[in-house]
Structure formats: structure tokens, C-alpha cells
Amino acid sequence: MRELRMFWSWAVVAGLALTSAAAADTRYDDEASFRGAAGPVALEDFEDEPLVGHPDGGGQLVIEMDDFTAEAVDYPSLKILDITWFGNHNHTPGGVKYLTMDTDIGGESDDVVFNFFEPISSFGLYLIDLEQGGTLTVNGVPYVIAPAGDGGESFIGIVADSPFSSVHLDLGPTDSQSSMDDVLYSSGGFRLRLTGSCPGRITASASGATPNGTVAYVFGAAQGSTTIPGGPCAGTRLDVQGGVRLVGTDSADGSGNSSLSGNAPAGACGRYLQALDVSPCTTSNVARIQ
Asked: How many beta carbons lie within 10 A of that of residue 33, not counting itself?
């Protein structure tokens, strides 16, 4: 966190010696590497979800979570279980629950589609008891997953160049039960939140920024449109207008979180702040100072 001490001119933004590079879809086969590339992610470990079905039946076609649905393609085969069953088990440390595809029909497998309510840019999960291997498809590109054996585990994660809202998982041709746990996905992008009271001390907190990158905080009298005139983010459109000026910058931490704090005078109340992730030139939502 840095203290908000002064207003800076746009010349400061123009002089930041930063560059950005285009990325490509990349596959990761371990969680640590995936997290390092994806930045801040949300976790669905199913521990807060109600149990669905039982080992011998009761599967459903669709199960809805907070940010996505899991949908079976051919059979009502989706369950959330809390016991180990023929090699299928929980992965979460200290947890018990997991999502399983179980057709309860010998020699018949099923596919699972994850449909997200908002576009994401990364997706990863643990696969359990995937005895025949499978295929994960993101943005129309298939990624082959090797068999993990009876009760075995494997991880696959994709960090994509283009946002996507759907992931298709083929769990093999004839394996009637395979499972999934600890689903990781990008958590809603670059966001700004204000805490405190105006007039008085205000903290602006940004999340979802480039890890260890620079975050700029911009003030405007009203919501509207202003184009940055120069520097690495020349041409980027801000969503504030009227007396637009740079309040300050901060270096995000390794998880993409940043904050600035300071005393807001009465004249700032009812005005607006927006954050700018300088490396990709991405803007946050606009937050009202109040």
C-alpha cells in the first residue's frame, strides 16, 4: 500500500517505461505454474455445495455453482459426493467433497461442459480416476489428457489469449465414472473498490492487476470518456471526465493486488476514481467517492 500524497500530471503516465506483449494460449500441467501465469484466480472446491446424488444413483444433468454451471451432455450423470468410491475421491486439503461424472451404466461415459456466467481467461482443474484419458477443449482447441490410472490424479490448466465462457471436457469413451475437484478460473478481471468515508480517509484497492505491475489511480469529476493522450497507454479510453488527473501509482503485489490511501477533502466527495493496469492498459470499473 502507498500513501496518496499528491496529484500527478499525465506526463508521468506518458513517461512510464513499460511495454506489453501479446500472449498465446498456453497449457500447464501443474497448479503452481498455472497460477503463476494466470494471476489471481477463483477456486471452486465444492465444499460449500450441497451433496447431489449418492454412489449408486441420483445424478443430475446440471449443477449450478456460484460462477458457472456444470452440465452433463448425454446422461444425468453429475453428482457431488463426500466419500471415496472406486478410486474417485476429494483432492482439496482438509476437504471431503468433489464433483463426479457417474453414469451408473457400465461401459458408458459422458462429457461435461462448464458454462461460465462471465467470460474468463484461464481455467484449470484436477482430474481424478481418469483411467482412459480425455480431452479438454477451450476456444475450439482440444488438449489431450493422458490417463492417470485407477484413483490417480492429474492437473490441466489453460491460460488463453482470448476470453471464453465455455469449457468442454471429454472424460473418455467407456469409463462410467471419473471426477473433478479444485476448479480454478480467472476471477472477474481488474476491479476497483473504495473503503472509508468522504470527507476523510479513503482507501482505493485494486485486484486482478498484472502481478508486480504498475497500477495508476485516476480521478475525474464525472463519469464519461477521456482518452489518454500519450505514453504506453496512448489511446486508451478512460470512463471518467472533467478535471481528469492522476492521483498516484502503486506496484501490485505478486497476487495482483494494489492499494492507495489518503485523506479525501470535501470537494472530492461525489467524484470518481478509476484504476489503470499500465502493462496491458486495462481499465477497472469506476468507483464513486462517498
From this structure: 16
> What average pLDDT does this structure show over 150-170?
92
41, 187 contact by CB (below 8 A): yes
260: containing domain: 2-21+189-288
- Tell me, yes or no, whether 140 and 211 share the same domain: no
Cell numbers given for 167 = 469449457
129 and 215, same domain (yes or no)? no
Domain boundary among 159, 186, 213: 186
pLDDT of residue 190: 83
Strands 245-251 and 237-241: unpaired
For cell 475450439, what's the residue?
A: 140
The whole-angstrom separation of Cα 140 and Cα 246 is 41
Domain assignment present for residue 137? The answer is: yes
Q: What band does 187 get if pLDDT is binned at 50, 70 and 90?
A: low
The pLDDT tens digits of the residues spanning 234-259 come to 999 998 999 999 999 999 998 888 99
Element (H, E) at 10: helix 10-14
- Show the CA angle centred on residue 31, arms to residues 29 and 32, nearest 5°: 115
- Cell 476491479 belongs to residue: 191
Whether this prediction's pTM lies above 0.85 is answered by no
3-state DSSP call for residue 64?
A: strand
Question: CA 39, CA 159: separation in Å to the nearest integer?
Answer: 10
Residue 51: CATH number of its domain? 2.60.120
One domain, residues 275 and 257: yes
Instruction: Specify if 130 maps to a domain.
Output: yes
pLDDT digits 0-9 by tens, 43-55 = 999 999 999 999 9
Q: Could you give the CA distance from residue 133 to residue 123 in angstroms, rounded to a whole number?
A: 18
**What integer pLDDT is reported at residue 163 of this predicted model?**
78
27 in a structural domain: no
Residue 254 belongs to domain with CATH number? 2.60.40
